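Supplementary Methods. Inverse-folding protocol.

Structures were first reduced to a discrete structure-token string of length 382. This string, shown here, constituted the complete conditioning input.
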């Protein structure tokens, strides 16, 4: 449905390439599907996946709130009509000025993972609710976080006790299993670790209530991933197994909400054969939208709307004069042998982590433009 609506818009408006078109009705549908799987939970859409105002409005209309990571994301959500109570500041890396900005705009929920950040929260967001992010392993994730975020689980209870001592509201535990996580069992170790920390905090007189299971829900690019229902079933079972009383649950999906709602239309700039391989250069690449092709992590699906016939292997590359701007040279892709410069190529399920990662103008190439459809028509944002 969403691809049809997007292609109809592209053929009527012919907006020029490259561009991302997002069907916001699909965004709202995805939010509702995920909310149905976690009926007692609060959904906080991870704004970094796609911060377009029309996307934010669709999330709000479907009953979602927002996981924000910076003052600019807070401002965008409030401008889209969100109440500050629907926002949680999920980024553990923030300056005191960022915290003060969030607090001044009414944001009261924060995630932290280090004593330094906790001290800044106590100083600039007095009395705020704080969840401590723990590091969990999610080896199957296509884009894992490594060790950048999250304290060791053994340190969490002490941090929460310190939050309590500093006059903050020690709310609970957060974790993230890594983005594009195809294993619904990946949440269980984090849920189990959280339950232990709840119990340890109780012995210190600190009563926790919140479990933030993060994002990570995968979407089908070239390989199938579990359905929202399958993720929901395993995660709910893990919560039941480890928590005698169901905690307040928060989830922070980004990719699963917006990826499938977007299509990037691109144009072939050059087709060239070197050392026996056919190289196809598109007008979109690593720096103007396809950052997640780094290490060939996300294997997008490509469609050529105007050419049929025999296909052959290709290396896919972007338009800049940077040697790293190669999309896929190990992942096997085949495109029509008749493909020529000027042909249109569509990239499916490209609504998440594309335009939002686009550089300002590397090589003078502008950031990826986004057009949002609301009810099938162009949203009238500036
Ligand atoms: C704290 C936090 N929550 C949620 C998300 C969204 O994750 P995903 O897009 O995999 O659902 C991210 C992604 O980076 C994140 O850092």
């Amino acid at each position: 449905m969403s691809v049809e609506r997007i292609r109809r818009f592209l053929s009527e408006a012919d907006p020029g390439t490259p561009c991302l078109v997002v069907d916001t009705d699909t965004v709202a549908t995805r939010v509702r599907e995920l909310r149905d799987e976690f009926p007692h939970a609060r959904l906080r859409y991870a704004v970094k996946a796609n911060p377009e105002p029309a996307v934010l409005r669709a999330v709000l209309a479907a009953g979602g709130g927002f996981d924000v990571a910076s003052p600019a994301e807070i401002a965008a959500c409030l401008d889209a009509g969100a109440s500050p109570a629907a926002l949680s500041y999920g980024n553990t890396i923030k300056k005191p000025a960022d915290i003060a900005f969030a607090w001044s705009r009414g944001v009261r929920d924060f995630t932290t993972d280090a004593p330094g950040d906790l001290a800044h929260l106590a100083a600039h967001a007095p009395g705020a609710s704080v969840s401590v992010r723990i590091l969990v392993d999610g080896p199957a994730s296509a884009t894992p976080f490594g060790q950048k975020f999250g304290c060791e689980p053994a340190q969490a209870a002490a941090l929460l006790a310190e939050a309590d001592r500093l006059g903050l509201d020690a709310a609970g535990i957060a974790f993230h299993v890594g983005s594009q996580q195809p294993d619904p069992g990946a949440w269980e170790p984090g849920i189990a670790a959280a339950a232990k920390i709840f119990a340890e905090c109780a012995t210190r007189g600190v009563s926790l209530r919140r479990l933030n299971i993060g994002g990570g829900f995968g979407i089908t690019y070239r390989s199938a991933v579990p359905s929202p229902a399958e993720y929901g079933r395993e995660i709910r079972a893990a919560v039941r197994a480890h928590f005698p009383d169901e905690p307040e649950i928060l989830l922070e999906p980004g990719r699963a909400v917006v990826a499938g709602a977007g299509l990037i239309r691109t144009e072939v700039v050059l087709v060239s054969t070197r050392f026996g391989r056919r190289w196809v250069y598109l007008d979109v690449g690593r720096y103007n939208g396809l950052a997640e092709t780094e290490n060939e992590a996300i294997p997008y699906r490509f469609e050529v709307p105007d050419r049929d016939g025999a296909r052959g292997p290709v290396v896919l590359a972007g338009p800049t004069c940077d040697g790293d701007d190669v999309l896929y040279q190990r992942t096997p892709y085949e495109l029509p042998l008749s493909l020529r410069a000027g042909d249109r190529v569509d990239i499916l399920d490209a609504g998440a982590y594309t335009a939002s990662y686009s550089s300002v103008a590397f090589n003078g190439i502008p950031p990826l433009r986004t057009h949002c459809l609301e009810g099938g028509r162009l949203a009238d944002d500036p």
